[in-house]
Amino acid sequence: MSKRSVTEVISSADGQAFLKVSGAGARREAPAGDEMGEFEDAWEDEIEEDEDVVDAEANSQEDDMDVDELMPVIEESEQPSATPDVFIPGTHTLGEDEILEPDESVYLMRHSTGVDWPCLSFDILRDNLGEERQRFPHTVWIVTGTQADLAKNNEIVVYKMSSLHKTQKNGDDSDSDDDEEDDALDEDPIIEHRSVPHLGGVNRIRAQPLPASEPLPPPTQPYHVASWAETGKIHIWDIRPLIESLETPGYSFDKLRSSKPVFTIDTHGRAEGFAMDWAASSASSIRLLTGDINSQIFLTTSTVSGFSVLPQPFTSHTSSVEDIQWSPTEPTVFASCSADRTVQIWDVRSKGRKSVAGIDPAHESDVNVISWNKGTSYLLVSGGDEGAIKVWDLRNVQKKGTSTPTPAPIASFHWHKGPITSLEWHPSDLSTFAASSADGIVSLWDLAVEHDDDEMNETLDTKDIPPQMLFNHHQKDVKEIHWHPQIPGAVVSTGAEGFDVFSTIAT
């Protein structure tokens, strides 16, 4: 893996997404009353002498009039204004009169949208707008599920977010090209949505994977999404008609096709769960893994005739299964993590439905989330309840039945001050991943950055910042994050107040 010096990327201090500013600005001192600026008349040499004669009577009349007092001229200071402090979590604390403000100069794009009900989980939907999109404005499609006040008020929602323009910055060159001016238009995004009823809050939602080389399925073919309800049931929906109704004006979709799930998994009983992941061998052959709080994992497969659930669960965890990831290269292998502090590796062909390898323990507390690197298939990143992020080389994991010692992570970061809530490797930059935490921070990391003692200019505030951390974005109660697979560097996150869509100068 190629390595980059820390000075070749944006430092974590410069890439800090929010600045700390005082709620009460400093007052500028007024000049003394007897101080006046000196004025020079550029035309005084050209004035005729007779025009300088002052009428005495006029002067006497002016003496009897009230004349407004001339205020002294306030000269503008040539000194630049003070730069706001960079807020470093764990080092700085906000005072009573202080707030966090975003530094727009470090964002290429930053948009926020509110929602009627909080959404714990979402997934990004593929579209037909092209790969590796760079030109603004952007359009993003997502599917999500709500956490409403009553079970009957919940919904599965497809959002189309369009007109996502480039963030305008102070001091932009006014002589930029027309294309750049179009990119930087200051317009609000357009948010459209379609929804179907969903009984119970949605704990987790995932869309079936679609190959990057293939377009979105036509409206006559399904685009499946799985939702895990708080009732313990997993519903599989066909959302393709909802997408088409947003994409094609006047399109009338079959509500019966979308308003009811095409299949429901009830093998978990009434046990809730959060672990869920799709895999696909082809458009007609997809597989879904689901893991519940009772430590059981079930496999659901599909054929042309429909879905079916294997009755025997996978059972090696001893506590709640928190997350599941299919191997990006081996179609029968998957990984899972649990509140039992372990990461387990499985092969669906193994007899007895037991894991074949694992990391025990992987964290000091519950292992909340994992992500499998799609380009470097032996790398897996995990996030724990204690706030730690660890990167593992799966070639070193303990095979069951052997005396191999517990492997050490190849990288470990203890930056976050709350449980890790989501993790995801960048879809194309193999050394970069994003993480979110209950401390309200989305962090971006690059493992290719190495510490350089000769080039680092550390201060007391920045000496504890890992050089691999590129960026911090703040969002209240952030729960889940995803990179957009078709817009390089774009991140979508969900929190208590809605969705954030952003990209930064750091990625």
Q: Which shape, going by the Cα principal axes?
A: globular
- Beta strands, count: 34
Distance between the termini: 17 Å
In DSSP terms (H or I, runs of 4 or more residues), the helix count works out at 4
Task: From the alpha carbons, calculate the radius of gyration and give it in angstroms.
Answer: 30 Å
Structure description:
The chain is mainly β. The chain contains 4 helices and 34 strands. Strands 18-19-20-21-25 form a 5-stranded antiparallel β-sheet, with no helix packed on it. Strands 5-34-33-32 form a 4-stranded antiparallel β-sheet, with no helix packed on it. A 4-stranded antiparallel β-sheet has the order 6-7-8-9, with helices on one face. The radius of gyration is 30 Å and the shape is globular.
What is the element layout, followed by pairings?
Elements: E1 4-5, E2 18-22, H1 56-63, E3 85-86, E4 98-102, E5 107-113, E6 121-124, E7 138-145, E8 155-164, H2 178-183, E9 190-197, E10 202-207, E11 224-229, E12 234-238, H3 240-247, H4 255-259, E13 263-265, E14 273-282, E15 285-292, E16 297-303, E17 306-309, E18 321-326, E19 333-338, E20 343-347, E21 357-359, E22 367-372, E23 379-384, E24 389-393, E25 398-399, E26 411-413, E27 420-425, E28 432-437, E29 441-446, E30 449-450, E31 469-474, E32 480-483, E33 491-495, E34 498-504
Parallel strand pairs: 1-30
Antiparallel strand pairs: 2-3, 2-4, 5-34, 6-7, 7-8, 8-9, 10-11, 11-12, 12-13, 14-15, 15-16, 16-17, 18-19, 19-20, 20-21, 21-25, 22-23, 23-24, 24-26, 27-28, 28-29, 29-31, 32-33, 33-34
Q: Characteristics of this structure?
A:
507 residues, mainly beta, 5-stranded antiparallel sheet, 4-stranded antiparallel sheet, 36% strand, globular, disordered N terminus
